[in-house]
Amino acid sequence: MIGWDDVYKVVVAMVPLYVALGLGYGSVKWWRIIMPEQCNAINSLVYYFTLPLFGFEFIAHVDPFQMNYPFMGADVIAKLIIVLLLALWAKCSSKGSYCWFITSFSLSTLNNTLVVGVPLMKAMYGQMGVDLVVQSSVVQFTVWFTILLLMLEFRRSGTDFSSTTTVGDSSFLSVEPAGKDLEGNQIIVAASTTTRGSFWYLMKVVWLKLAKNPNSYACIVGIIWAFLANRWHFQMPSIMEGSILIMSRAGTGTAMFSMGLFMALQEKVIACGPTLTVYGMFLRFIVGPATMALGAFSVGLRGDVLRISIIQAALPHAISSFVIAKEYGLHATVLSTGVIIGTMVSLPVLISLFAVLEFLH
Q1: Can you give the pTM of this predicted structure?
Q2: Transmembrane ranges (predicted)?
């Protein structure tokens, strides 16, 4: 059972996040140290340097041969259920769109496995809980973040491609602008004249951009290194590890600092409004664990592994999801609010979920 000492340890892990957030907010709002036009550059620093190095450093030190593959399978099934539900919603609902499909996928699948997850799981289930949440984080970095980046690049490249094609071109892509989404972002939807040639050309552009994205290949290189290092039992050279650590250790702090800068530029603290805030909380704390429960039951997980799988799916939103949303200009207000509010309310929610699962046991 969780004691007050365990709760304190989780709070100790969470409070520094809000210190970094407050410093970023105050740097723009109160002290005028950083000008509004400089904020995008700081987010780019996080996106292109500290975040990929943080991901590589973490993944490279994991032993992939010791993973719980039924647990990984349950996670994959849960994510596929979410993708199917969101695809049906985007296709059948008048409020659905590709842009909101991407944002909803991020809100419901990507969680804060390390800063919040590790101390919380250690308090709840000991080392087994830590091991499983770390394994979940590896898959999140290498698979789900890559899929998110693929969808975002497809959206960005499709918009750029449609604006540069001409009627006489053999790979012409005819598009028409839709009304705008709830944040006023212009949505571009393909018309019926899309040809097969234009699609494959667009996919080529997307993959080339993705291949140049350090967040993509950092995770892939990290998992390859982890396999090789654990197979032949060698360690990373200290000069190489030191060069990576000097930037990767700043990953979480600079991400929260960048979020504070972003908040300072908004008119309201809850920039996306209460409706979208509730929507984000619903996806994170209801849809995420519910679909994970379905995935876990489908592969036959039982006991503490089952309970850990459900609780880790209810962890708050991943901080890096905001950084990515800000870099691609897609619903950053929703993601920032999700991270800030979600992290604040996650502790009582997760403890309550833990108590319910233990009672049912």
Answers
A1: 0.87
A2: 6-25, 45-62, 68-90, 97-120, 132-152, 217-234, 246-265, 277-299, 332-357
Question: 7 exposed, middle or buried (CB, 10 Å; 0-12, 13-18, 19+)?
Answer: middle
End-to-end CA distance of the chain: 13
Average pLDDT on 68-85 reads: 95
Identify the weakest region by mean pLDDT among 54-58, 112-116, 230-234, 287-291.
112-116
Distance CA 151, CA 324 (A): 12
DSSP letter at 36 equals G
Q: Is the pLDDT of residue 37 over 70?
A: yes
CA 147, CA 154: separation in Å to the nearest integer? 11
**Residue 88, both tokens:** 């049906």
Asked if residue 141 lies in contact with residue 55, where contact means CB atoms within 8 angstroms, the answer is: yes
Question: How distant, in Å, are the alpha carbons of 99, 271, 281, 282, 302 from that of 275?
Answer: 17, 11, 10, 11, 36
Residue type, position 26, single letter: G
Give the architecture-level CATH label for domain 4-360: Up-down Bundle (1.20)
DSSP 318: P
Are β-strands 186-190 and 175-180 bridged in parallel, bridged antiparallel, or unpaired?
antiparallel
Domain ranges of the chain: 4-360
Are 256 and 343 within 8 A, CB to CB? Answer: no
